[in-house]
Design goal:
33% of the residues lie in helices and 20% in strands. By secondary structure, the chain is of the alpha/beta class. Helix 2 links the parallel strand 2 and strand 3. The relative contact order is 0.18. Bound molecules: D-xylitol-5-phosphate and zinc ion (ZN). The site of zinc ion has 6 residues, from strand 2.
């Protein structure tokens, strides 16, 4: 069964604890945490100190999405901050295989994210080493963008690739997911659905989280 990972990027940054309580009440089990460095992507969000403070407030699974150049420099910081999953970008790590091994050496799940133009075949030689593949369905950097339609085909191809090579891998999709396209994305093969603005931009965040769950069961 697919699950929803609300992205804190679109939450009220002045009231993060309150926002977390709302998605918990809506049934969320994951919290997607978008870390941006203003270099790999043209935007800056938050880093390990914020995540560490939130770790004291909730037992949600911390799904940390690192949109940072050379993430290998900071893996230990995010492990210490309480990440359960650390996802790096294929395009951002000089030695992808080594960085994956480092994440796993800390007992944390290792994910690799692919930008819209990056082919799934680029993960062929690390497929046995990873726990999660994150398909970006927008160009990373901002919440509130539109889903890129060709990514449906990519999700389907990734599903087949995972089923063939390592069926344990979680297939996550991130960007532009709304009430009106979430079912198509699940049908294409996604396991974990990141939703930012369509949850935290809603008038009633608790109800909106439930609505997403109701659509995907
Ligand atoms: C974009 C981030 C996303 C973002 C999604 O770079 O990786 O996680 O929060 O936001 P929405 O759901 O608004 O597209
Ligand atoms: Zn993300």
């Amino acid at each position: 069964m697919a699950k929803i990972a609300p992205s804190l990027l679109s939450a009220d940054f002045a009231n993060l604890e309150g926002e977390i309580r709302k998605i918990e009440a809506g049934g969320a089990e994951y919290l997607h945490l978008d870390v941006m460095d203003g270099n790999y992507v043209p935007n800056i969000s938050f880093g390990a100190p914020v995540i560490a403070k939130l770790r004291d407030k909730t037992d949600l699974i911390f799904d940390v999405h690192l949109m940072i150049e050379k993430p290998e420099r900071y893996i230990e910081n995010f492990v210490k901050a309480g990440a359960d999953i650390i996802t790096i970008h294929q395009e951002a790590s000089l030695h992808l295989h080594r960085t994956i091994q480092e994440i796993k050496s800390h007992g944390v799940k290792a994910g690799v994210s692919l930008n819209p133009a990056t082919p799934i075949e680029s993960l062929k030689y690390v497929i046995d080493d990873i726990d999660l593949i994150l398909i970006m369905s927008v160009n990373p950097g901002f919440g509130g963008q539109s889903f890129i339609p060709t990514m449906i085909e990519k999700i389907k191809e990734t599903r087949s690739f995972i089923d063939k090579h390592n069926p344990q891998i979680i297939l996550e999709v991130d960007g532009g997911i709304k009430l009106d396209n979430v079912q198509e994305i699940v049908k294409a093969g996604a396991d974990l659905i990141v939703v930012g603005s369509a949850i935290f931009g809603a008038d009633d965040v608790v109800e909106r989280t439930k609505e997403f769950y109701n659509l995907i069961v």
